[in-house]
Amino acid sequence: MDFLKYPQPLAELISSLxxxxxxxPKTAGRLAFYLLQQPQVSEDLAKAIVVANRDIRxxxxxxxxxxxxxxxICQNMQRDLTxxxxxxxxxxxxxxxxxxxxxxxxxxxxxxxxPMDGIGPEQLTINQLLKRLEGIKEVVMAMNPTxxxxxxxxxxxxxxxxxxxxxxxxxxxLPVGGDLEYAxxxxxxxxxxxxxxx
Length: 198
What we know:
The protein is an alpha/beta fold. It is built from eight helices and six strands; from the N terminus they run αααββαβαβαβαβα. β5, α7 (147-160) and β6 (166-169) form a beta-alpha-beta unit.
């Protein structure tokens, strides 16, 4: 999309919106025009972004996004303090919490190992993770089933197992309602590995 055809402020808005994940130039253009036609929505959005950037920070314990430090989960002494679930991103904590199944604590890495992108252990919160293992009996790896996610889980398992900590991995496989015909080989292989008796 040629932003030069638009007035400079509009071109800059479209350019900024197109840098968001999953937003291409055409969608960014539609969003920009919508925002210009809905000034109250634009103002509310701008205020929400400013407030979120000002008030949201990383929890000093688990590195999850929070508006209080420590976060509500880390403050909750009713949780299982011996189990720790390691995730890639803050949004993963929300997904796991929605299930109501995991009662332990969390640790957010803020990414995965990816040497091709220059992301090593130093760019993640691995050092913070290693400092909070006292009293932990099990660490659950809940990374996405990608090459980088698998590599990160294996890297962490190699660090943790010599400490006598049980390291487990969430199961991966076919989603409920999924169709074998459309699943890739890795997903099907994981589903077979994780099979159980009925």
